[in-house]
Structures are given as structure tokens and as C-alpha cells.
Specification:
This protein is an alpha/beta fold. Helices cover about 35% and strands about 25% of the residues. The protein has 2 domains: about 30-110 and about 225-270, D-Maltodextrin-Binding Protein, domain 2, CATH 3.40.190.10; about 115-215, Periplasmic binding protein-like II (D-Maltodextrin-Binding Protein, domain 2, 3-Layer(aba) Sandwich), CATH 3.40.190. The protein has helices at about 1-20, 40-50, 50-55, 70-75, 90-100, 140-150, 200-205, 220-225, 240-250, 255-265, and strands spanning about 35-40, 60-65, 85-90, 105-110, 115-120, 130-135, 155, 170, 180, 195-200, 215, 230-235, 265-270. The strands form 3 sheets. A 6-stranded mixed beta sheet has the order 2-1-3-12-4-13, sandwiched between helices. The radius of gyration is 22 Å and the shape is elongated.
Length: about 270
């Protein structure tokens, strides 16, 4: 019995210790601390770049990293953080609808640009009939990929296809290429078998192929405007000193220079 009590006591101690280490249960009510939930890359990295600027204005920035896309919004709704930085507006809108939450965007920061990458060919003008171009096979990313190919003269899409475009919407194919739909995660490893490929930024970074990028989505493209990553907070707190200070610090030349130098066009600012 004594052993059981010792074990139970140890378990409680461990749980409390874990909560202290991860910040769970913290209300973040320190008036000079801005607590932000973020995914590691590039969001937490970006936030690290603005710590000093915020400190100069009297703020302490505390970054809470999450690996998934659900917990940052849960933490914000529960009051454990003041803001989060990991998502785009379409995802936020869906999350609010499904969970009955009231989280709002307070500013765009960056977009993770899809790019056309070298495979067996080094340039678009080297394409010839029968060449294969890999694109992601999920609906949203395939449409983005096809739009990027259209913007660079590889194909032409049906008018109005927009961000719901599929292979069926291709109305002109001057190079005579074959569009190959693939799981986006395997496209980088498939480059030796493709003339060119359109790759999501995160997979290009993970596979260390960003140096093979030929061209990327422009900041004024539909995709960039739609899928820009944002700073979000609870509705009603958007004009608080904390949130205004955070947005000002992140939408800065420091962040712009950091992303440009680090990601070579794969991740670009949009503010």
C-alpha cells in the first residue's frame, strides 16, 4: 500500500512537472509577456528574429512550439497563449466553423511558395513532347501547381478554373507534356524520373532541393493571396497593445531579409 501511494505521488509530480515544462495551464497574463503558439519551421524561426526588437519596446516574447495543426488553435481558445502563427485563412475559417471558435486573422506574414523544380530538364524552354511533369495529387495543391505551370506558359487552363483546376481543365498543351499526379511527399525523390516537377515548399525544404527551383508563385498570385500564413488572436483582442506590438515586429524588414536569405524564394513575405 505504501508503495502504491509512493507511485501515485510520483505520477502526480511528473504530470505537474510536464505541465510546467510545456506551459500547459498557463494563462499568459503577464502584462509584458507575449505568448505565441507556432510550428517550428519557419514560424518559430521567424519569431526568434523579432525577440530583440520586442524586448527593446519592453516586451518579452515567449514561443510555444507545436508539431500539429490543431493544438495551436486550442491553446489560443483556452487562453494559454495570446496569439498563434502557423496557419492560413482557409484553414482558420474551417477550424472556426467546425469548433465553434472565434479566432481572427490580424495580419499576413508569409506564404510558402510552390515552385517548378529541375528534373531531367533545367529550364522550361527545354521541354519536349512526352516529357513528364510531376504535380501534387490533392485537389488544392494540384490546382496551384497547374496555375503555376500556366503562368509560365507550359499549359493553358479553362477560364475560371482557378483554385479548383484539375488536369481536365487543361485546354492547351503547347509542349505536349504529360502531367503526372503524385503524392506531394514523394515528388522530390521522383525528380530523376521527371523532366520538371511542381513541389510544395515544405517538401522542397525537407528534401533540400530548393537550389533546384526555377520559378516560384508570385506574391500577387491567387494562391499566395489565399494561402498566406497569418498571425491570429481571439476576436476582440486584435487592438490590444500585445497584438499590435507582435504584428508590427513580425511585419518588418528584419523578417523579410531573414526569409529571403534563408529560403531563397521558397518562403516569401507578403506584407
Amino acid at each position: 500500500m505504501k508503495n502504491l501511494k509512493k507511485i501515485a505521488g510520483l505520477a502526480v509530480t511528473l504530470v505537474l512537472g510536464l505541465c510546467l515544462l510545456t506551459g500547459c495551464g498557463s494563462s499568459g497574463d503577464d502584462e509584458t509577456t507575449i505568448k505565441v503558439a507556432a510550428c517550428p519551421t519557419p514560424h518559430a524561426e521567424v519569431l526568434e528574429q523579432v525577440k530583440d526588437a520586442l524586448a527593446e519596446d519592453g516586451w518579452t516574447l515567449e514561443i510555444v512550439e507545436f508539431e500539429d495543426y490543431v493544438k495551436p488553435n486550442q491553446a489560443l481558445t483556452d487562453g494559454d497563449v495570446d496569439a498563434n502563427y502557423f496557419q492560413h485563412v482557409p484553414y482558420l475559417d474551417q477550424y472556426n466553423e467546425e469548433n465553434g471558435t472565434d479566432i481572427i486573422s490580424v495580419g499576413t506574414v508569409h506564404y510558402e511558395a510552390m515552385g517548378i523544380y529541375k528534373g531531367t530538364k533545367s529550364a522550361i524552354n527545354e521541354l519536349s513532347s512526352g516529357d513528364k511533369i510531376g504535380v501534387p495529387n490533392d485537389v488544392t495543391n494540384e490546382a496551384r501547381a497547374l496555375q503555376l505551370l500556366e503562368a509560365n506558359g507550359v499549359i493553358k487552363l479553362r477560364d475560371g478554373a482557378g483554385l479548383k483546376a484539375t488536369k481536365a481543365d487543361i485546354v492547351s498543351n503547347p509542349y505536349g507534356v504529360e502531367i503526372v499526379e503524385l503524392d506531394p511527399a514523394i515528388i522530390p525523390n521522383s525528380l530523376p524520373d521527371l523532366a520538371l516537377a511542381v513541389i510544395n515548399a515544405n517538401y522542397a525544404i525537407e528534401a533540400d532541393v530548393i537550389g533546384q527551383g526555377i520559378v516560384f508563385e508570385a506574391s500577387d498570385s491567387d494562391a499566395a493571396q489565399t494561402y498566406a500564413n497569418i498571425i491570429a488572436c481571439r476576436n476582440g483582442e486584435e487592438n490590444s497593445e500585445k497584438i499590435q506590438a507582435l504584428v508590427k515586429a513580425v511585419q518588418s524588414e528584419t523578417v523579410k531579409a531573414y526569409l529571403n536569405e534563408t529560403y531563397k524564394g521558397v518562403i516569401q513575405t507578403i506584407f
